Amino acid sequence: MNGCSENSPSKKILLIGAYGAGNLGDEAILQGMLMILEERGIPKEDIAIWSWSPLETSSLFGVKAIQRDDSKDLPEEYDKLVLGGGGVLYAANFPIIFRRLFQYLMLHKEVEVYGVGTDELFGSTPFAKDLLNKVDPLSVRTLYDKQYLESIGVTREIKIVDCPSLLIPTPIKEQVLEILGKYFDTSKPLLGICIKPWRIKQTLPPSFLDFLSKRFQPRYTFIPLVMCRHKFSPDEMDEVSLKALFEELGLFDEELNEWFSLKMTPSLVKGIVQSMDFVITNRKHPLMFAAQKKIPTMIFEDTPTFILSKYARCYGVNFAWVG
User: Fold this and answer.
1) Residue range 14-37: average pLDDT?
2) Considering its fold, how many domains does the chain have in total?
3) Domain match, 289 and 227 both
4) Distance between CA atoms of residues 52 and 296, nearest Å
5) What is the arithmetic mean of pLDDT over 228-252?
């Protein structure tokens, strides 16, 4: 794989990331990381996953999983630590990640950072610079991430690799459309929408609702894309915001309520996104999945650092709505 060192199959790997919290984008990353490690010749029995829900992770992916506890250090019996993907290098999250990477570096063990995303680190910048100059190898998922790390003083080689989530397989489109056809009118073009629920606290802008109802609703069938049912944060429960949005648009009914109750796998939700004719999102993974298939996409920008717009440019998307 591009930007990755080879590992002896006898080495025990601890894979850490934002796994087991109910975000299908992160679970897609985990699935992709396991594919990458398999390509390197590492048996599943030599891998352990740091997960918020270890029993669920073990059941879904057939690997050992250990309980994530942010108040404790990582177990030290593993030969190598891999931080696998996700938008994990940002100010609020970095101290948690820093502690784990630093712990293994101080144990003189191998530490790899693979395919991660970044955002402004603010006061954590000096620590991030020093730490990331010591890991080997280091790779990120977009040109923006590489340029940002270089701008804060990371001088070691930084590779750009595909987000691991882009590697996972999907059902064939006919199978996806058969599932969608049970709940939606698939005779019209399909428009997938994923809006994070923080916006509901302020209510969706009337201008945005008007934009959706006048420009898209007459021509498209709207499909809610539930990327995250976060186990620990109500602010990450997409179902809340999407139900509110579809009620505002007059589209909520019993069939839609049943749709929200379906349990999705990472591969299925990726297949659904990639079966759309247009996507509107303020989450990164619908953006990445859509861009992989060159599906027209509109970004609903909701971050003060405009990280979604930066990612959109890297993936060739230039249609943005600033909320």
Assistant:
1) 97
2) 2
3) yes
4) 34
5) 85
